[in-house]
Write a structure and sequence with these properties.
CATH architecture of the domain at 534-704: Sandwich
Low-confidence stretches: 1-17, 623-674, 679-715, 748-786
Number of helices: 9
Shape: elongated
Mean pLDDT: 82
Strand content: 25-35%
CATH class of the domain at 534-704: Mainly Beta
Number of strands: 43
Structural class: alpha+beta
Helix content: 10-25%
Length: 786
C-alpha cells in the first residue's frame, strides 16, 4: 500500500480522544484577582534565557544585547541589580545586514546559552550578529570577559531564533546546536574537557542527525550519561512527505573517542524515538519542550520523569499533548535491540546481536566494533510513555513550554502539578490524578505572539518566572484567596490550597499542624466543609413600577451552572437570563418578590446571591414612615436603607436593604420554590430560561415583610387626608369670598360711600371692614372718615 494512501487511511480512522477539561477559573492579563509581577524596562527586550541561582535570590537573564542580574529575593518586587551591555560592533552589524533578510531582528546579539561553569562564573554564548561569541561572567561583580577562542560557533547557533540546548557539569560544557550559517550542520559536543581529555563531537555523517530541532538536555549522573531531546526527519520511514519524529539521544559523559576509528568522536552516541500517541490515533510526533522532574526524596534516580510537550504535523488546529517518560524506560530501550543502516540503499534493518552498542568505555574497542557503532546507532524500539498514553490532550491549545513540580498535601500524598504555556499567551495550571487531570486555572501572561519564551520555577518561593520578548513576568504558583468559600476551595482540587477551619479562609497549607480541609482526589465538599456555612447577604432592591431590573450573579467557576429561583409561580417569558448569568425583567406587581441565584458545581449546590425586589415608595411617604417608626423599639428597628442606582435605569434611584442569614444549600428545603430559571452553560454562552417548578400558590409573597406593606398603605392614607383638607379649605374660601362680595353690593345700594351733597364726604355710618387677605397682606383697612 502506498505510504500516502496509508496516511490518508490513518486520518480517516482518527477518533477524538478524551481531552483536557475546561479551566475552572480564567484570569485575564492584569486581573486584580490574580496579580502578576512584570519586569519590562523599555531598553530590555528578548529575555530569552533564564537561570536561577542556587539560593533562588538572583535571576540571571540573557537578553538582546545585554545580560541582566535581577534581585528576586522578595516575591513582590523584581529589582535590577546589574546590567552588562553585550552588543555587536557597528562593523559586525553592517556585515550582518548583507547576510539576513531582517537585520533589525536577526543582527542583535541574542543570548541562547547561559549556564554556571563553576561556583564563581557563568558561561554565556550569543548569536552576535550571526557570528556567535561567548564569554564568562563573574557572578559577584557581574563583569563580562569574552572567551575569544574562536569556537563559539560550535556552542550556540548563528540565528538568534534557532533553538539549541546546553548543560554543564564539573566545569565541562555539553551542547547540541547547529554550527554553520545556514543551520544545516547539527552537532552534539563536549567543551572545556577536564583531566586531560580531548573535546569530542559527532562524526560528520549526514545519517546521524536529519535536520534536528534541539529542545532540551538532561544529566544521568548515576550512569554518567547525558540525554538530548529533539525532533528530526525520520529516514527509517519511507514516506513521500517527510515524517517528523521526536527523539532522545544519549552520549557518555566521559567518552573520549576511539584510538584509530572515531578519534575525538562519540563512540557512545545512540538515538531512540519518543512515542506520544493515544490508542487508535495518529501520534503527536513533534517535540516542543521537555522538563526533567527529579525523583521524590529517597527514591532511586531511575524514577526521574521527563515531561514533554508534543504537537502533530498532521493537525490542522492548535492541538497538543503532554507525555511523561521514565528514565528507567529510556535506559531499557538503549540497552535493547538496534537497527543497522545499509549505506548503499539507505535502509534500516534489525541487527541480530547488540554486543557493545549503546555502552560506555569503548575507547579501546576494535576498529570492527567501532565500525558497527557507526552503522548501528538507532534503537529497534521506541520509548513508550507512562501509562502508554498521553497524560494531557488539548484539542484547542498549542502548548509550547512545560514546567512540573511535586506537591505534598496534608495527608502526605504527592501530586504532580504542570504549568503549561500556550502559544496564545495563557499559562495553564494542571493537576494530575490517578484517574485523570484537572485544569485548575488559566492565567493570561501576554497578548501578542512571542518569538522567544522560557520558564523557570522556584519551588522554594512558589513563583514561576516566564521570559518572553517583552520582559520577565513572575507568576505566583497559587493564589488561594480567590476561593471565598469552603466549597470553592475544595472543588478547586488544588494541592497548593486548603481550607482553614479555624480562620475560615482558603490558604496554602504550609503548617502541617493547622486544621486544613483538603480533598484533592474526590473533592468531597459535604465531608470537608461540615460546619463551615457562610453568611449570605440578602439585598432588598427598591425599584419604580415598569422599571428594567437587572439582578447580577457571578459564577464561582467556569464549570458551574447557575439557577435562578423565584418564590412565585410566574411565566418564564417575563424573564431574560443573558450569558453573564444575570436575571432581567420589568418591575411589576407580579415580579416583586424574592429571587435567589444558586450555583451547581461538581454536584454541590450553594447560594451565590439573594435579592428581594420591592416597589419604591415616594419620598413624602418615606418621611411619614420614618416618623411613625421613630417610636418603635430600637431592637426591632428595620435595617438602614441606602439609595443606589438600579442596574436597568441609571437615572432612577433604587433603594437596597441588606439582610444577613446563613444557609446550607445541601439541606435546604426547596418546597417553597415556585419558578426557576437555569443556565446550564459552562463558559460564556448565552442561555435563556430553561426550567420551571410549580407548587401551591399563595396570596402573599414569601420573603416579603407584611409590616412594610402596612406602612405603605398608611402613607397613601395620609396623602388622601391632606388632599381632602386642602380641598375643604379651598371650598370654604370660595363660599366666604362669594358672601363678602354679596354684602358689598347690597351695602352700596342702601348706604352709598359718597354723599350726593358733598362728594368729598363719606357716610358716617360705615364701620371698619375686615380684610380677607392672608396675614402676610399689608394693605390698610377701611375706616370711617370724619
Amino acid at each position: 500500500m502506498a505510504p500516502s494512501l496509508l496516511l490518508l487511511l490513518l486520518l480517516l480512522l482518527l477518533i477524538s480522544s478524551s481531552s483536557l477539561p475546561a479551566p475552572r477559573r480564567t484570569f485575564l492579563l492584569n486581573s486584580a484577582d490574580r496579580p502578576l509581577l512584570h519586569f519590562s524596562p523599555p531598553d530590555v527586550h528578548n529575555t530569552s534565557t533564564l537561570l536561577l541561582s542556587e539560593d533562588t535570590s538572583t535571576l540571571y537573564v540573557g537578553a538582546g544585547d545585554a545580560l541582566l542580574s535581577l534581585d528576586v529575593s522578595q516575591t513582590d518586587v523584581i529589582r535590577l541589580k546589574k546590567k552588562v551591555e553585550w552588543r555587536p560592533s557597528d562593523s559586525q552589524i553592517n556585515e550582518c545586514k548583507y547576510k539576513v533578510r531582517n537585520p533589525t531582528v536577526d543582527c542583535p546579539n541574542l543570548v541562547s546559552v547561559l549556564q554556571p561553569i563553576n561556583s564563581t562564573h557563568l558561561y554565556a554564548c550569543g548569536s552576535h550578529a550571526f557570528s556567535p561569541h561567548d564569554a564568562f561572567i563573574h557572578t559577584e561583580s557581574f563583569s563580562l570577559v569574552e572567551h575569544g577562542d574562536g569556537k563559539a560557533r560550535l556552542r550556540c547557533p548563528h540565528s538568534p531564533f534557532r533553538r539549541s540546548t546546553a548543560i554543564t557539569h564539573d566545569g565541562e560544557l555539553f551542547t547540541a546546536t547547529t554550527t554553520d550559517f545556514k543551520g544545516a550542520k547539527p552537532q552534539i559536543s563536549r567543551h572545556f574537557s577536564k583531566d586531560g581529555r580531548p573535546d569530542v563531537c559527532q562524526e560528520s555523517s549526514a545519517s546521524l542527525l536529519q535536520d534536528p530541532e534541539f529542545i532540551s538536555s538532561s544529566l544521568d549522573l548515576s550512569e554518567r550519561k547525558l540525554y538530548f531531546f529533539f525532533s528530526e526527519v525520520g529516514k527509517e520511514f519511507r514516506f513521500i512527505d517527510e515524517l517528523q519524529i521526536a527523539r532522545v539521544a544519549q552520549v557518555c559523559k566521559d567518552d573520549v573517542g576511539g584510538l584509530r576509528t572515531l578519534q575525538k568522536k562519540w563512540t557512545s552516541f545512540a538515538k531512540a524515538s519518543l512515542i506520544c500517541q493515544s490508542p487508535k490515533q495518529l501520534p503527536f510526533n513533534v517535540l516542543q519542550d521537555v522538563f526533567t522532574l527529579p525523583p521524590p526524596e529517597g527514591k532511586n534516580a531511575s524514577e526521574t520523569l521527563f515531561y514533554g510537550v508534543f504537537t502533530s504535523q498532521w493537525s490542522s488546529g492548535p492541538e497538543s499533548a503532554v507525555c511523561a517518560f521514565k528514565l528507567q524506560d529510556i535506559r531499557d530501550v538503549f540497552s535493547g535491540s538496534y537497527l543497522t543502516l545499509n549505506t548503499q540503499t539507505m535502509t534500516w534493518a534489525p541487527r541480530q546481536e547488540r554486543r557493545i552498542l549503546g555502552q560506555c568505555g569503548l575507547e579501546t574497542a576494535s576498529d570492527q566494533d567501532l565500525g558497527d557503532v557507526r552503522k548501528s546507532f538507532l534503537t529497534g524500539e521506541g520509548v513508550k510513555p507512562v501509562k502508554n498514553t498521553p497524560l494531557v490532550v488539548s484539542p484547542d491549545q498549542r502548548y509550547s513550554r512545560v514546567v512540573a513540580e511535586r506537591v505534598k498535601v496534608v495527608n502526605g500524598k504527592e501530586y504532580t502539578v504542570l504549568f503549561l504555556l500556550t502559544e496564545s499567551g495563557f499559562l495553564h495550571k494542571v493537576v494530575l490524578f490517578d484517574g485523570g487531570e484537572q485544569l485548575v486555572e488559566e492565567i493570561q501572561i501576554f497578548t501578542e505572539p512571542q518569538l522567544v519564551k522560557s520558564m523557570v520555577l522556584s519551588s522554594a518561593k512558589g513563583v514561576l518566572y516566564v521570559g518572553t520578548s517583552e520582559g520577565v513576568t513572575a507568576v505566583p504558583v497559587a493564589r488561594c484567596s480567590i476561593y471565598s468559600t469552603c466549597s470553592q476551595c475544595i472543588l478547586a482540587r488544588d494541592p497548593q490550597c486548603g481550607w482553614s477551619r479555624s480562620s475560615r479562609v482558603c490558604k496554602s497549607p504550609t503548617d502541617p499542624h493547622q486544621d486544613i480541609a483538603q480533598d484533592v482526589d474526590h473533592a468531597n465538599v459535604s465531608d470537608e466543609c461540615q460546619g463551615q456555612t457562610r453568611t449570605i447577604t440578602v439585598k432588598e432592591v427598591f425599584v419604580e413600577l415598569n422599571e428594567a431590573v437587572r439582578l447580577s450573579c457571578q459564577k464561582p467557576s467556569n464549570l458551574a451552572s447557575l439557577t435562578w429561583t423565584s418564590f412565585k409561580d410566574l411565566p418564564q417569558n417575563l424573564f431574560i437570563q443573558p450569558a453573564d448569568g444575570s436575571l432581567r425583567f420589568l418591575a411589576s406587581p407580579h415580579t416583586f418578590g424574592a429571587y435567589r441565584c444558586e450555583a451547581v458545581d461538581g454536584g454541590y449546590r450553594e447560594v451565590v446571591a439573594s435579592y428581594d425586589v420591592r416597589q419604591m415608595v415616594s419620598p413624602r411617604s418615606l418621611n411619614v414612615i420614618k416618623s411613625d417608626c421613630q417610636d418603635q423599639d430600637p431592637l426591632t428597628e428595620d435595617p438602614t436603607k441606602t439609595m443606589t442606582r438600579p442596574s436597568g435605569d441609571p437615572e432612577t434611584p433604587t433603594m437596597m436593604v441588606h439582610h444577613d442569614f446563613k444557609t446550607d444549600s445541601d439541606h435546604e428545603d426547596k418546597s417553597t420554590v415556585q419558578t426557576s430559571f437555569t443556565d446550564h452553560g459552562s463558559g460564556f454562552t448565552d442561555h435563556g430560561p430553561s426550567s420551571r417548578n410549580r407548587g401551591s400558590s399563595a396570596n402573599t409573597t414569601p420573603g416579603r415583610d407584611p409590616q412594610s406593606d402596612a406602612l405603605i398603605v398608611k402613607s397613601y392614607h395620609s396623602e388622601l387626608v391632606v388632599v381632602s383638607l386642602l380641598m375643604t379649605v379651598f371650598f370654604c374660601a370660595l363660599v366666604l369670598g362669594g358672601l363678602h362680595m354679596w354684602r358689598q353690593s347690597k351695602s352700596r345700594k342702601m348706604n352709598p360711600l359718597v354723599s350726593p351733597d358733598d362728594g368729598s364726604k363719606t357716610n358716617q355710618s360705615m364701620e371698619s371692614v375686615p380684610s380677607l387677605s392672608s396675614p402676610e397682606d399689608t394693605s390698610p383697612e377701611l375706616k370711617v372718615v370724619q
